[in-house]
Amino acid sequence: MTEMRTAPTGDARADRGPARTRRKGLSERALARLFIAPSLLVMALVALFPVIYAIVLSLYSYTRRQRTGFGGLDNYVDALTDGRFWSATQFTFTFTVTSVAAEFLIGLGFALLMNQTFRGRGITRAAILIPWVIPTVIAAQMWFFMFNVTPGFINNIFGLGDFSWLGQPGWATFAIVFADVWKTAPFVALLLLAGLQTIPSEMTESGLVDGANAFQRLWYITLPLLRPAILVALLFRTVDALRVYDLVAVMTGGAFDTESLSVLVQQYVVRTPNPGYGSALSTITFILILAVGMVFVRMLGRDIVVGRGAER
Amino acid sequence: MRARRWVAAAGTFVLVMAACTPGGDDDGDEGGDGGGDGGGELVWAIGGAEAQPGGVHQQVAELWNEQNPDNPIRIELLPEEADQQREQQALELQAEGSGFDVLGVDVIWTGEYSENGWVESLEDVRDEIEEASLPGAFESATWGGELWAAPYNTNAGFLYYRTDLVDSAPTTWDELCQTATTTAASAGIGGFIGQGAQYEGFVVNWLEYYWSAGGELYNDDQTEVLFDTEIAAEATQFMADAISEGCYAPGFNTAQEEPARNEFQQGNVVFMRNWPYVYGLVNEDTGSPANGNFNIAPLPTFEGEGTISALGGFNNAVSAFSDNTDAAIDFVVWAATDPEPQTMLATEASVPPTLQSVYDELDDPVMALLGEILPDAKPRPPAPQWNEISVEMQRALHPAVNGQADIEQAVETVRTFLEGTIE
User: Which PANTHER family match (chain B) (predicted)?
Assistant: First the structure.
């Protein structure tokens, strides 16, 4: 909006334009709303409508694909009393907490490294980002081959014989978390690097002059200034990790206690369709993810969400 | 400034129109798939190794195209795994899309597809098909007394074994495990591999133990549950022991068909349960340690008498949303009853054909063994709820086989679920 106001100042005729518009035609605010309306409408169609439609569907009972009547909250009661839902929830949260924590630590390390000036920095940056560019299903299939007993690349390299990573509980979860960290730590690094580059070098320089050592400069200067970027990275990754589907579907198919909420939802939407129950499960998943997302948004603070954070 | 208001209105209009166009484009594409491209091109949605370029399904399609240049058929390659093939088809059919004309339908999907109204009834051509096809395959294409698909290929499980390591094929499961454990130890490789990952193939493998111990799921018309928890527990216990005692190779519980084949082909296991398609592949691979050193046999039983195998295979159905129904019906009838494509399945890829006459004319070990075991092969119930039953069996029995869950409780869960399917 600032642009609209400043642009015509040089021209005398155009200068009168906005003033007249305010009296006679649409105000700028109304015009702004009008221009935004189409995109809001499209967003409502593609984003809001499916959510509401899923909530409506979740209130009906079905036998396979055929609707049999109005069920009220029956589907929700069934879901919340099903042990399978709770074990999927447990896996999903275990996966999220461990993978996001590891991705953050590794990503931060990468970002700090990439933020230094050294020979071959461009190549390092590109190399670090390669895993992130690979489509997730392909990465998942690749890690399946790496971990699985056949062909068993990891077992060969480390001389582990026939250790069955994907064929026992615990290690199967570990393998999935590992693949996710490998894949998305670069993404976290990228977000944090963007944050690091907004920190003026004078800050750390003056810290240096005041005699702060490397760790103190990181802890008291870099990290507090990086807080908004960290929160954004954690928000993206957490919300993403809570929806994990492809890694699990390809690597274990949900066997050995690795069934995630999305895998469960997918089963009732696609494999053994029950649109009512499937929608109830996806609505519950949606609410869980929304709640976690809201916590982060609150932590970020309203000012940053509105967009002033970048100026700080 | 009136002009400005008009510009705003026009802008809004253009944006809204732009937002609507993708829908219009989609419709155009759909039409193109069905009837465009200068004639009636058919799309055949089928998956698996043989649907890939160079595979036998492609050769069958090319044969059809030579003979029917007006209605050529093109394969839409679906994923390797049956569950995922069904999902791909379901996504298109649920949306009533005309993108697929001919559907490669697994024998267990017949009931579901007909219940959903996704496939055309083939009652008009029933006699022609029934006369030519193997009875088991024909039955698998019917549901509720009506024909919904034309048989294309059938399937049954074989026991593959290494002739350089084992003298003769075992006839009981216990014998198999004893031989597997001792031979594997002395040869430094794995014992037995089958399909032990948590998916449909696991249920097929489990059922072969359960059936061969005398168990049944339902009575013939599926009105009564005959699930025997004692036999089921016995079969599950056998598999659990086979894992813990090292009879099954370490990769068993994550293996599907192809990983199992790789293990056998690379010489990493003594025994393998797999479908006939493996025979041709290992025979052609001169670099494989198993090449020239393996043979096929019927699957063992617990008693040592007879054999039992789960009936597999694919039938070709005509999509109810096809824009080219007549040509699609011509194709499925041709693929089921014409000796040329049916013989091709057998000779080019050891995929078992459903045309009876082919078995009389061909003299090769795979077809001979199939002729022996197909009469005893058992179909899984092709009921609309089979997928739910299968998922429940996977969830209950897979952890039990892997020692993560109580066996008694697992088989009880399956029985309760089966009883819930009868109403």
Answer: MALTOSE-BINDING PERIPLASMIC PROTEIN, MALTOSE_MALTODEXTRIN-BINDING PERIPLASMIC PROTEIN
